[in-house]
Design goal:
Blueprint: H1 13-22, H2 29-38, H3 43-58, H4 65-82, E1 85-86, H5 89-102, H6 104-111, H7 115-131, H8 135-152, E2 163-164, H9 183-206, H10 209-224, E3 235-239, E4 245-254, E5 257-261, E6 267-271, E7 275-276
Antiparallel strand pairs: 1-2, 3-4, 3-7, 4-5, 5-6
Helix pairs in contact: 1-4, 3-4, 5-6, 5-8
Length: about 280
Amino acid sequence: MSDPYAPIQGISLERYAELGAELDGITDEQAQIAKVAQLGVSAADWTAAKNGWTARMQDMSLMGAVATKYMGLYNQALAKKTGVAKVSFEDWCAMSAAIAVFGYEAAMKHFGVTQGEWTTISAHWQSELSRDPMNLAMKRNTLQEQETQRLRAGGQPKAVVVERGPAGAAVAGGAAAFDPNAHAAMQMNAAAQHNQQYFAQAAAVMNQGAVQAAVKMASGMAQLGGGSGLIVGAAVKVQWSDGNKYPGTIMQIAQGQSQIVFSDGRTMWIANQYLSV
């Protein structure tokens, strides 16, 4: 592809992002077509642009560059139109739990937020999680699991506070949103969740008593032979920058590093010097 950012049927990526923001909250395809028609875009041009830009976002040879740029443009367009929606970390966990129990549409209706607002809210906190993947992620898992259990026991969703900045305000730091039509972003997220579930299941198998007994025996023999005792399947403690040690399981070892899977399925390559059996 000579220019992945070339307009499609006269619709640039910037314009496509603006149209996506205008469609926030409109999920019916015919209603979307009617809305873009009001904005001067024919049904044929909209369909071509939607399919074309989605294909470029999914093009693996572009390494997600188009999808990444689109996210920023869409977020800016949505902020200009409606302002930026924000919730606290605790409320985000509570809302995520409600989605898991009651389903996406029911939860969004209950909390009174649109899909665009939710993706902005969620993407912001996902960004924050990446800055502190150990502590914040563990806190998220605990809060969300507790709330999920409470809801499944018959509890009602918690009241949350959704703050909305004025239309035209600058995008909140760290926030990044994407339109429902950005299938590439959603597919990458789904793939990541699938991998996380796979590694969590694999770790659960490895941590079974009989398996760990065999692993410990092999690890002990390796240590007797002058090795470190770090072998695939070994349960280890990871020394973190906050001074704490967190449990994990070795999945792979290569060039002085080990791929560790934590209890929630997240994986990370850690230098062996920070691991202990």
